[in-house]
Amino acid sequence: MFGSVFSGGVIRKAVEKGLMEICVHDLRDYTFDRHKQVDDRPYGGLEGMVFKAEPIFLAVEDIRESPETRVFLLSPQGRKLDPRLAGEMARFSQVILICGRYEGVDERVIESLVNEEISIGDYVITGGEPAAVVVVDAASRFIPGVVGKAESVAHDSFAAGRLDFPHYTRPRDFRGMKVPQVLFSGDHAKIERWRKRKALEKTLGKRPDLLDRELSPEESEILEEIRKERKEL
Q1: Catalytic residue among 55, 101, 141, 162, which?
Q2: Of 36, 108, 200, 212, which residue is the least packed, with the fewest Cβ within 10 Å?
Q3: Pick from 175, 158, 69, 161: which is nearest to 115 by CA?
Protein backbone atom coordinates (compact mmCIF):
# COMPACT_ATOMS: atom_id res chain seq x y z
CA MET A 1 0.00 0.00 0.00
CA PHE A 2 2.88 2.38 0.74
CA GLY A 3 5.31 1.53 -2.05
CA SER A 4 3.78 3.50 -4.92
CA VAL A 5 2.88 6.48 -2.73
CA PHE A 6 6.35 7.00 -1.27
CA SER A 7 8.21 6.23 -4.49
CA GLY A 8 7.24 9.46 -6.25
CA GLY A 9 7.10 13.21 -5.86
CA VAL A 10 8.59 15.34 -3.12
CA ILE A 11 8.84 12.49 -0.60
CA ARG A 12 10.90 10.31 -2.97
CA LYS A 13 13.31 13.20 -3.58
CA ALA A 14 13.60 13.85 0.17
CA VAL A 15 14.45 10.20 0.79
CA GLU A 16 17.03 10.19 -2.02
CA LYS A 17 18.66 13.30 -0.53
CA GLY A 18 18.86 11.63 2.86
CA LEU A 19 16.57 14.22 4.45
CA MET A 20 14.21 11.56 5.74
CA GLU A 21 13.88 7.79 5.86
CA ILE A 22 10.67 5.79 5.63
CA CYS A 23 10.54 2.17 6.80
CA VAL A 24 7.45 -0.03 6.56
CA HIS A 25 7.18 -2.91 9.03
CA ASP A 26 4.80 -5.87 8.80
CA LEU A 27 3.26 -6.86 12.14
CA ARG A 28 3.05 -10.46 10.94
CA ASP A 29 6.84 -10.60 11.30
CA TYR A 30 6.30 -10.34 15.06
CA THR A 31 3.93 -13.28 15.45
CA PHE A 32 4.76 -16.88 16.34
CA ASP A 33 1.71 -18.93 15.41
CA ARG A 34 1.37 -20.87 12.19
CA HIS A 35 -1.12 -18.39 10.69
CA LYS A 36 0.84 -15.27 11.74
CA GLN A 37 -2.31 -13.87 13.30
CA VAL A 38 -2.16 -10.21 14.36
CA ASP A 39 -5.80 -9.85 15.45
CA ASP A 40 -8.37 -11.73 17.51
CA ARG A 41 -11.98 -11.51 18.64
CA PRO A 42 -12.66 -8.99 21.42
CA TYR A 43 -13.51 -10.16 24.91
CA GLY A 44 -17.11 -9.50 25.79
CA GLY A 45 -18.65 -10.94 22.65
CA LEU A 46 -18.72 -7.93 20.31
CA GLU A 47 -18.49 -8.25 16.53
CA GLY A 48 -15.29 -7.51 14.61
CA MET A 49 -11.62 -8.07 15.33
CA VAL A 50 -9.06 -6.25 17.47
CA PHE A 51 -5.29 -5.93 16.96
CA LYS A 52 -3.44 -8.02 19.54
CA ALA A 53 -1.06 -6.24 21.91
CA GLU A 54 1.92 -8.61 21.57
CA PRO A 55 2.94 -8.08 17.92
CA ILE A 56 2.60 -4.30 18.27
CA PHE A 57 4.71 -4.20 21.45
CA LEU A 58 7.36 -6.48 19.92
CA ALA A 59 7.50 -4.44 16.70
CA VAL A 60 7.87 -1.10 18.49
CA GLU A 61 10.48 -2.49 20.90
CA ASP A 62 12.44 -3.87 17.95
CA ILE A 63 12.50 -0.74 15.78
CA ARG A 64 12.61 1.96 18.48
CA GLU A 65 16.01 3.68 18.24
CA SER A 66 15.97 5.67 21.47
CA PRO A 67 13.81 6.61 24.48
CA GLU A 68 13.04 9.91 22.69
CA THR A 69 11.29 8.09 19.82
CA ARG A 70 7.64 9.09 19.64
CA VAL A 71 4.95 6.47 19.03
CA PHE A 72 1.66 7.55 17.44
CA LEU A 73 -1.48 5.55 16.76
CA LEU A 74 -3.64 6.53 13.79
CA SER A 75 -7.12 6.61 15.29
CA PRO A 76 -10.40 8.51 14.75
CA GLN A 77 -10.29 9.22 18.49
CA GLY A 78 -6.97 11.07 18.31
CA ARG A 79 -5.78 14.66 18.23
CA LYS A 80 -6.72 16.15 14.89
CA LEU A 81 -3.80 16.66 12.52
CA ASP A 82 -2.97 20.31 11.87
CA PRO A 83 0.14 22.30 10.90
CA ARG A 84 1.24 22.62 14.53
CA LEU A 85 1.17 18.85 15.09
CA ALA A 86 2.83 18.17 11.72
CA GLY A 87 5.61 20.60 12.62
CA GLU A 88 6.07 18.96 16.02
CA MET A 89 6.42 15.53 14.43
CA ALA A 90 9.01 16.78 11.94
CA ARG A 91 11.33 17.74 14.80
CA PHE A 92 11.68 14.20 16.18
CA SER A 93 14.59 12.08 14.96
CA GLN A 94 12.30 9.02 14.80
CA VAL A 95 8.54 8.68 14.70
CA ILE A 96 6.69 5.36 14.75
CA LEU A 97 3.18 5.30 13.28
CA ILE A 98 0.88 2.41 14.20
CA CYS A 99 -1.87 1.92 11.64
CA GLY A 100 -5.07 0.90 13.38
CA ARG A 101 -7.53 -1.43 11.69
CA TYR A 102 -10.65 -3.48 12.34
CA GLU A 103 -12.32 -2.44 15.63
CA GLY A 104 -9.06 -0.89 16.84
CA VAL A 105 -6.14 -2.07 18.94
CA ASP A 106 -5.90 -3.69 22.35
CA GLU A 107 -6.32 -0.86 24.88
CA ARG A 108 -3.04 -1.83 26.58
CA VAL A 109 -1.21 -0.55 23.51
CA ILE A 110 -2.79 2.88 23.98
CA GLU A 111 -2.26 2.92 27.75
CA SER A 112 1.35 1.70 27.88
CA LEU A 113 3.00 2.09 24.49
CA VAL A 114 1.53 5.00 22.52
CA ASN A 115 2.54 8.61 23.24
CA GLU A 116 -0.40 10.10 21.36
CA GLU A 117 -3.26 9.20 19.03
CA ILE A 118 -3.67 11.11 15.75
CA SER A 119 -6.79 11.59 13.62
CA ILE A 120 -6.93 13.10 10.14
CA GLY A 121 -10.60 13.98 10.48
CA ASP A 122 -13.92 13.16 12.09
CA TYR A 123 -14.72 10.15 9.94
CA VAL A 124 -13.78 6.48 9.81
CA ILE A 125 -11.81 4.78 7.03
CA THR A 126 -10.99 1.09 6.57
CA GLY A 127 -7.52 1.36 8.06
CA GLY A 128 -4.80 3.64 9.30
CA GLU A 129 -2.62 3.24 6.23
CA PRO A 130 -4.13 6.10 4.16
CA ALA A 131 -4.03 8.26 7.29
CA ALA A 132 -0.35 7.41 7.79
CA VAL A 133 0.39 8.57 4.24
CA VAL A 134 -1.31 11.89 4.98
CA VAL A 135 0.64 12.31 8.23
CA VAL A 136 4.00 11.53 6.60
CA ASP A 137 3.31 13.93 3.74
CA ALA A 138 2.15 16.74 6.06
CA ALA A 139 5.09 16.35 8.47
CA SER A 140 7.69 16.03 5.71
CA ARG A 141 6.99 19.58 4.53
CA PHE A 142 8.39 20.91 7.81
CA ILE A 143 11.73 19.13 7.41
CA PRO A 144 14.29 21.67 6.14
CA GLY A 145 15.14 21.06 2.48
CA VAL A 146 12.15 18.86 1.63
CA VAL A 147 10.16 21.70 0.05
CA GLY A 148 12.18 23.74 -2.44
CA LYS A 149 11.21 27.11 -0.99
CA ALA A 150 10.66 27.04 2.76
CA GLU A 151 8.65 30.27 2.65
CA SER A 152 5.95 28.51 0.58
CA VAL A 153 5.17 26.33 3.62
CA ALA A 154 4.58 29.45 5.70
CA HIS A 155 1.99 30.67 3.16
CA ASP A 156 0.13 27.35 2.89
CA SER A 157 -3.50 27.18 3.92
CA PHE A 158 -3.85 26.75 7.72
CA ALA A 159 -0.15 27.50 8.34
CA ALA A 160 -1.07 30.86 9.88
CA GLY A 161 -4.54 29.79 10.95
CA ARG A 162 -6.04 31.17 7.73
CA LEU A 163 -6.91 29.80 4.31
CA ASP A 164 -4.49 30.68 1.54
CA PHE A 165 -4.91 33.73 -0.69
CA PRO A 166 -5.66 33.29 -4.45
CA HIS A 167 -2.82 32.54 -6.88
CA TYR A 168 -2.61 33.38 -10.60
CA THR A 169 -0.24 32.76 -13.49
CA ARG A 170 -0.14 33.30 -17.27
CA PRO A 171 -2.12 34.29 -19.26
CA ARG A 172 -3.27 37.58 -17.73
CA ASP A 173 -6.60 37.29 -19.54
CA PHE A 174 -8.15 33.82 -19.96
CA ARG A 175 -11.59 33.79 -21.64
CA GLY A 176 -12.30 37.22 -20.26
CA MET A 177 -11.26 36.27 -16.73
CA LYS A 178 -8.48 38.70 -15.81
CA VAL A 179 -5.79 38.55 -13.17
CA PRO A 180 -6.32 41.31 -10.54
CA GLN A 181 -4.49 44.47 -11.56
CA VAL A 182 -2.97 44.94 -8.11
CA LEU A 183 -0.57 42.03 -8.74
CA PHE A 184 1.07 44.05 -11.53
CA SER A 185 1.34 47.27 -9.53
CA GLY A 186 4.86 46.67 -8.28
CA ASP A 187 3.74 48.01 -4.89
CA HIS A 188 4.76 45.15 -2.58
CA ALA A 189 3.05 46.58 0.50
CA LYS A 190 -0.18 46.97 -1.45
CA ILE A 191 0.09 43.41 -2.82
CA GLU A 192 0.74 42.00 0.65
CA ARG A 193 -2.32 43.76 2.09
CA TRP A 194 -4.43 42.51 -0.84
CA ARG A 195 -3.28 38.95 -0.15
CA LYS A 196 -4.10 39.24 3.54
CA ARG A 197 -7.53 40.58 2.69
CA LYS A 198 -8.26 37.80 0.20
CA ALA A 199 -7.07 35.15 2.68
CA LEU A 200 -9.36 36.59 5.34
CA GLU A 201 -12.29 36.79 2.90
CA LYS A 202 -11.83 33.12 2.01
CA THR A 203 -11.50 32.11 5.64
CA LEU A 204 -14.58 34.09 6.67
CA GLY A 205 -16.61 32.52 3.88
CA LYS A 206 -15.41 28.91 4.11
CA ARG A 207 -13.89 28.35 7.56
CA PRO A 208 -15.01 31.14 9.93
CA ASP A 209 -14.09 28.90 12.88
CA LEU A 210 -10.41 29.55 12.10
CA LEU A 211 -10.90 33.23 12.87
CA ASP A 212 -11.33 32.41 16.55
CA ARG A 213 -7.55 32.37 16.76
CA GLU A 214 -5.55 35.49 17.55
CA LEU A 215 -5.43 38.11 14.79
CA SER A 216 -2.72 40.68 14.21
CA PRO A 217 -3.78 44.34 14.48
CA GLU A 218 -3.66 44.66 10.69
CA GLU A 219 -5.73 41.49 10.19
CA SER A 220 -8.31 42.73 12.71
CA GLU A 221 -8.57 46.00 10.82
CA ILE A 222 -8.96 44.28 7.45
CA LEU A 223 -11.51 41.82 8.83
CA GLU A 224 -13.57 44.68 10.25
CA GLU A 225 -13.52 46.36 6.81
CA ILE A 226 -14.74 43.14 5.16
CA ARG A 227 -17.56 42.63 7.66
CA LYS A 228 -18.66 46.26 7.36
CA GLU A 229 -18.74 46.05 3.54
CA ARG A 230 -20.80 42.84 3.67
CA LYS A 231 -23.32 44.43 6.00
CA GLU A 232 -23.70 47.38 3.63
CA LEU A 233 -24.42 44.98 0.77
Answers
A1: 141
A2: 212
A3: 69
Do 147 and 141 touch, CB atoms closer than 8 A?
yes
Annotated catalytic residue 144 = no
Q: Which domain holds residue 195?
A: 173-232
Strand 95-99 to 70-80 pairing: parallel
CA atoms in the 13 A half-sphere facing the CB of 213: 13
Q: Which of 42, 156, 197, 207 is catalytic?
A: 156
Distance CA 152, CA 146 (A): 12
Is residue 219 annotated as a catalytic residue, yes or no?
Answer: no
Q: Which residues pair with 178 in a beta bridge?
A: 173
Say what the pLDDT of residue 103 is.
87
Q: Write the pLDDT tens digit of every residue in 7-63.
A: 999 999 999 999 999 999 999 999 999 999 999 999 998 889 999 999 999 999 999
pLDDT value at position 46?
A: 86
Q: Same domain for 97 and 212?
A: no
Which residue, of 140, 165, 198, is where some domain finishes?
A: 140
Q: How far is Cα 179 from Cα 181, in angstroms, rounded to an integer?
A: 6
Q: Which stretches of the chain score pLDDT less than 70?
A: 150-152, 154-155, 157, 159-160
